[in-house]
Amino acid sequence: MSREFEHALLTTLRRARSIAVLTGAGVSAESGIPTFRDAQTGLWARFRPEDLATPEAFERDPKLVWEWYAWRRDVVAKAAPNAGHAALARLATLVPELALITQNVDGLHQRAGSRDVIELHGNIHRSRCVRENTVVESWADTGDLPPRCPRCGALLRPDVVWFGEMLPAAALERAEAAARGCDVFFSVGTSAAVYPAAHLPLVARDAGATVIEVNKDPTRISNAVTYVLRGPSGEILPQLLAAAWPG
Length: 247
Ligand code: BV8
Fold this sequence. Notes:
Helix content is about 35%, strand content about 20%. It has helices spanning about 5-15, 25-30, 50, 55-60, 60-75, 85-90, 110, 170-180, 200-205, 235-245; strands at about 20-25, 95-100, 120, 120-130, 135, 155-160, 185-190, 210-215, 225-230. Helix 9 links the parallel strand 7 (about 185-190) and strand 8 (about 210-215).
């Protein structure tokens, strides 16, 4: 990046009143969590996430889908937030307004200290009753897989948004308002392939925001953003914050 470009970018960041950030699986990659585009490993190698993260898959084989999420919860439990998550938690202390919007269901932003995370696609650590649609914190270990709701006996499912399901309206509304109202919009570690989340960077751009992509590889929106910072978010984000807010 030329020195003039870098100077303009850093000045824009320092002057920003409101920053919105959309993260995807790439921000958790350096924590050892496979992204949706990475081939799945081991037992799950023969499945495509898009084929498992659907109501139809759960309908067809609830035990398989429940066990896939149990495996992912285990991977996440063994992982730690990385320097990219930490930088985004620190960013909240540097600007008047920060909206952190994530497509990830791993809860690593919260573990890195971010508060008020807007989870567009739910959270893998929460389970809900398929009949009452309410979150269930605990249940008897009857050996059933998936476990059953202690109140009504219906199956439990992960409290995440599957393909073909509506996003939580309040989270989506907050995310859209943040995209429309921000001065700077970061798109971090997302292929921008899944809607409606993938609309958000373009909503921000159309509302006049400076849009910055931090991503290892080119994405569908790389040509639409103001700045492309190509590389791992765990390195780029801390460097960017140190350059924009030294000391
Ligand atoms: C919906 C939770 C209304 C579950 C997920 C056409 C137009 C509009 C919509 C559609 C359409 N066709 C189909 C649809 C609907 C569909 C959709 O968008 N499909 C896509 C495939 C086209 N959307 C939906 O179904 C949504 N609901 O639209 O409701 C509706 C209702 C009924 C009928 C129609 C519409 C619901 C979508 C939510 C699905 N749930 N997750 C779970 O996790 O198990 S999506 C899941 O996949 C993630 O949450 C995430 O959103 C997505 C994966 O994307 P990324 O996070 O970007 O990850 P990815 O691996 O793709 O990319 C990682 C990037 O990081 C890469 O670019 C890589 O280079 C980079 N990277 C890697 N390492 C690093 C890095 N970058 C920086 N540093 C690194 N170290």
